[in-house]
Amino acid sequence: MKIVRGIxxxxxxxxxxxxYIGFMFVEPLFYNGLEGLIKVLKDWQTLNAxxxxxxxxxxxxxxxxxxxxxxxERDFIASKAFLPEVLSELTNYLELSAKLLLEAYRRExxxxxxxxxxxxQELPKLPNSHRTIFRDCIHSGEPEIGDYLSEILVxxxxxxxxxxxxxxxxxxxxxxxxxxxxxxxxxxxxxxLHARVTGLFDFGRNQKxxxxxxxTVSQIHNS
Length: 223
Prior knowledge:
Layout: H1 2-43, H2 45-80, H3 83-109, H4 129-140, H5 143-169, H6 180-198, H7 201-204, H8 217-222
């Protein structure tokens, strides 16, 4: 739809410009010569001056938009260069989260374990360095990239809160946070999150374009 509107705009603009040139320059010059052209330009000088001013404003607007676009591209390249580093930190955090969830899941399935003592695995600390890099990439990148990174940011916050609940759940008699269904749900979300984060590595290294397609079952399973 956007392409169709663009084509219609260019065709309409071209038609208007062609009519203007035809009636303002070609027709009087063809029928009345140079004197006729000068007379027409003199009679319509106010309109011509207004059109020249309008054209100048369009050129200034295009120049501003072009410069803004190039600046955003440079800002995105600069922010993107730090992606591999922060992705490594996030991957390490997610792997530590997996150890905590696996310990919780195994203990819950052991009949002799009453799940009333703390987990041995420490609660991993969510790093903060990715926030600035993700924010800058969202601000200067394409909308699809912004949506991809925003989804990761939101899911990370939810996941981090759930990890705290699971860790605290083994200090108290809260059975809900220790149920196999909840723990497996958290593991599934962790798998999706890990697949999304690791899917950014090749993009951050300029080796591949970002894959915006929904995750496949095999990708989640591998994570």
